[in-house]
Amino acid sequence: MMGTQRMKPVIALVGRPNVGKSTLFNRLTKSRDAIVADFAGLTRDRHYGQGRQGKYEYIVIDTGGFEPDAASGIYHEMAKQTQQAVAEADVVLFIVDARAGLSAQDHDIANYLRRLGKRCVLVANKAEGMREGAQLSEFYELGLGEVHPVSAAHGQGIRSLIEFALEPLQGPEPEEAPEDTATADVIRLAVAGRPNVGKSTLINAWLGEERLVAFDLPGTTRDAIRVPFERNGQRFELIDTAGLRRKGRVFEAIEKFSVVKTLQAIESAHVVLLLLDATQGVTDQDAHIAGFALESGRAVVLAVNKWDAVDEYQRQLLERSIETRLAFLKFAKIHFISAKKRQGLGPLWASIIEAYQSATRKMPTPQLTRVLHEAVQYQAPKRAGMFRPKLRYAHQGGMNPPVIVIHGNSLEHVADAYKRYLEGRFRKEFKLVGTPLRIEFKTSQNPYADKGE
């Protein structure tokens, strides 16, 4: 199960163009399992990513280059996006080019960051092979304290940089460990979607039902804003993505769409309810949110809101655009609802619970191995040159999302299509609906390959 509810810290990368921000971004996020490779049609916004260095997990935002223009000054050119990213970050990594040295633009950015009073770490990139000291000393002029030399391209100095940046944010470990096991039956739910798609209307429609009982949970500021409630004996926690504020019994949404809040909510949820707008179709933003949910390994339920406001032709177009643009969410159930008219809300709960149960399903090794052998008997993997992959046994490697590890020989030659075929067999056997499923192959070494040693 997921550990504690503390939010991952957010790191914003800031700096002028060509200082190596995207190289550093890729270096900080590449440690993620590349689970998205075989999901066709997944659009990914490379401005946001998750990463891990040692014990530190985080979300990174790459703000793109500052392009200050002499006439309009830095502030006009600093996209609102960048300002919001910096505002939402827990720590800003300000990247300068150790080879090119200080520029006037660096001074502008430093002044801007200093005024914000945000925790800021100065990073001198492209510092490979440099002796610390002399060449980096000019950067101390920026008045941002210690300079951290790194080489994003070669991966030097990255780990200690992250430790330095995030250590002060660690704080005491949340005292939730015992409570977390006690609330293993609480389903954490994030309702995600673009602004004005009807998130708060849906939540109010839900909370307006007499069968929902809100219960109180203590939370700290670094936690997600959570609305605990119970429905038919099942406890839920709604993780806020809409900037909800409680006003009496009703919630109002402060609709300032924040990608970071959405990402954090998705990260801390078990199930993501992705709300689409029937009148708008599937937008890039929808696809990005969906892609991030998939990358995070979250169970997903799709709900198309304002379904009553579109005609038959628009409905067909919409269904087609879900099929093509969200093809990678084939495992997710789709519901057509109207939050305003409270239509179709009941079945959503069933799908949310089903998705959660699928994501946390226990799959015994004997049963997995039996399904594997039946699948191979029915259709064996193709030979690849001299090699025919031999699939021997399977076991469960994790939950939420479920991971199945298959052991055997020459498994690196198993084609993607065959992997999808196996996924279908496992899904059917274990009734996995609404959750991604990861399949990993582990090849045992051929005992005859290294005879010479």
Automatic annotation (TrEMBL):
Q: Which GO terms describe its biological process?
A: ribosome biogenesis
Spell out where the chain crosses the membrane.
none
Domain annotation EngA-type G: ranges: 9-173, 187-360
Q: Print the keywords alphabetically.
A: GTP-binding, Nucleotide-binding, Repeat, Ribosome biogenesis
Q: What InterPro entries does this protein map onto?
A: G_ENGA, GTP-bd, GTPase_Der, KH_dom-like, KH_dom-like_a/b, P-loop_NTPase, Small_GTP-bd
Q: Which amino acids does the record list as binding GTP 2?
A: 193-200, 240-244, 305-308
Residues noted as binding GTP 1 in the record, renumbered to the chain: 15-22, 62-66, 125-128
Query: Its Gene Ontology molecular function terms?
Result: GTP binding; ribosome binding
Q: Does the record bear Phosphoprotein in its keywords?
A: no
The organism sits in which domain of life?
Answer: Bacteria
Entries under CDD domains matching the protein: EngA1, EngA2
In the UniProt record, does the keyword Repeat occur? yes
Alphabetized Pfam families for the sequence = KH_dom-like, MMR_HSR1
Coiled-coil segments, which residues?
none
Under PANTHER family, the record lists: GTPASE DER
Its function, per the record, reads:
GTPase that plays an essential role in the late steps of ribosome biogenesis.
Tell me its family.
Belongs to the TRAFAC class TrmE-Era-EngA-EngB-Septin-like GTPase superfamily. EngA (Der) GTPase family.
The record's note on quaternary structure and interaction partners says:
Associates with the 50S ribosomal subunit.
Q: What is this protein called?
A: GTPase Der
Species: Extensimonas vulgaris
Gene designation:
der
